[in-house]
Every structure is written in C-alpha cells, then in structure tokens.
Amino acid sequence: MAGNRGGATGSGKDFTFVNSVVKYLLFFFNFIFWIISLLMVAVGIYARTVKYAEATLASLSVDPAVMLMVVGVLMFLITFCGCVGSLRENICLLQTFCISLVVIFIIQLAAGVLGFIFSNKAREKVTEVINDAIVHYRDDVDLQNLIDFGQEEFGCCGATTYLDWSNNIYFDCNKTNPSRERCSVPFSCCILSRNESVVNTMCGQGMQEREFAEAGKEIHTSGCIDMLVDFIHSNMFVLGGIALGLAIPELVGMVLSQILINQIKDQIELQQYNLDHSSDPWS
User: Residue 267, Cβ neighbours under 10 Å: how many?
Assistant: First the structure.
C-alpha cells in the first residue's frame, strides 16, 4: 500500500505523505521568481511608455522593453502556477508548472545545439539584427546608448565593418545626403587614449571616406560580429557557467514539483483507501 512509502509526516489521523518542507520550499522558490517577473514587466512597461519612439514601434525586434515584458509575463504565468499549485496542492497546476519548465529547458538546450551547428546562420541573423539597430540608431536614445556601449566595450564599429554605418540616413555616404554627419561614424567607434579625459564627439567625422588603413589609425574598423565571436571563444568556460547557473533553478523547480506531485498522489490514494475501509470493522 502507498502508506509504506517514505517522505510521510505525522501519525494516525494526521498522517500525510505531503512533506511541508518540499511544499513550502517550492512555494518560496516560485514566489521569488514571481516577484522578479512582476519587476521585469513593470520596468518593461515603464520603459515602453516613457520612450515610445515611432521608429522603435516599427522595429520591435530591437526594443529591449518589449522583450522584457514578454519574458516577464511568461515567467509570471509559470511561477503563478507553481505558487498556487504548491500551496493548494493542486496536481494540475503543478504539472503545468513542471511541463513548462521542461519545455523551456528543452528549447534552451535545442537553441544552444542549433546555434553551434548552424553558427553561420546564427551569425547572419545577429548581423541582420545589428544592421537593423544601426538603421534606427538616432531614433531611440536607449538603443543609441546600447550600441555605443557595445562598440566601446568590444572596440568595434558597425556589424562587419565601419562602412555599415552608411545604412543609417544620418551617416549615409551618398553625396545627396544633406546631413552634417555624412560619411561619419559615431564617437563610440573612436580609439580613445587613456590620457583623454574629455571625449571628442566629432572624432568620427568623415571616417567612411578614408581608406581602411588610414581610418584604422583613429577608429576601430573591425565589425562587432567578429569581436563578439572572439569574446565568446575566449570566455567559453565563463559563459558555460552562466548557462549552467540559469539551468539549475529550472532543474530544481522540476525536481521539487515532481516530488510534490508524487506525494500528493500518494496522499489521495491514502484518503481513498481510508474512505473505502471506513465502514469496515476489521480496518
């Protein structure tokens, strides 16, 4: 009978298979991520309403606020199932929570494997995203700051080369372009001296008109894709550790929810057994 299995607590009429430690550990585990999901949605909504640039609305793929809201909403729904399911000992909600984590884990694993196998396709997609961001560089302050930060940190300029900045209407090298920034690149492309305390924001003026070797004396001419690939290769163990760190909470959630589901099923079997034998004088 189910009553012989381990993990039960209590005795007599108070006997239960549901371990309170597992139950409340799963609840607090989900509650923490539930709060985090609410903060993510709030930050995403705030960022979206404060800076609703028209060009950004036309290019949602480069807007971190939308991505933050989507991830936050999904996390909220999944952790809500985990919180309520553990407190109410609801098998349906717990199974929904567990299956969701399994699906997310499989998607992450598949994305990593496919990204490794089809690295060229992944490279093309990232290049497309960066070029799309370059097009909208002046239309969104947050996007502009993100690109500048990336170019300064990685010491790069553009997606594959500094000439990619011609994709932006302000930096376009076309002779008919009336912009004062024609044929220029952002100041974040410039090679800055360690002794420089004040950044010359005009240091990228007219750099697209110069030859590669000449421009390379004052700006970074390599694209950010190559620098990003080099960064990934040189920090493979660190990135692997981060990926493992993200996977561990999912695995913990899966294990705890499955343990609780099994305990609840055992408890239901015990209750049914007691109900069936409640009128038996020999029970």
Answer: 17
Kindly state the average pLDDT of the residues 190-216.
83
- pTM: predicted TM-score of the whole model, two decimal places: 0.68
pLDDT at residue number 236: 77
Indicate whether 167 belongs to any domain.
yes
Q: Give the integer Cα–Cα distance in Å for 214 and 218.
A: 8
Contact indicator for 121, 277 with CB cutoff of 8 Å: no
Q: Does any domain span residue 160?
A: yes
3-class secondary-structure state, position 16? strand
Q: H/E element holding 57?
A: helix 54-57
The pLDDT assigned to 273 comes to 81
> Which residues lie across from 190 on neighbouring strands?
219
Q: For 255-282, how does the pLDDT look when each residue is reduced to its tens digit (9 = 90+)?
A: 999 999 999 999 988 888 878 777 555 5
Distance CA 273, CA 1 (A): 9
Give the type of residue at 72. G
Tokens of 88: 């109410």
pLDDT, tens digit (0-9, with 9 covering 90-100), for 161-189: 999 999 999 999 998 999 999 999 999 99
In a domain, 206, yes or no: yes
141: domain range? 119-242
Counting every residue written for the chain, the total comes to: 283
Residues 6+ apart with CB under 8 A from 114: 122
Through-space distance between the first and last CA atoms of the chain, rounded to whole angstroms:
14
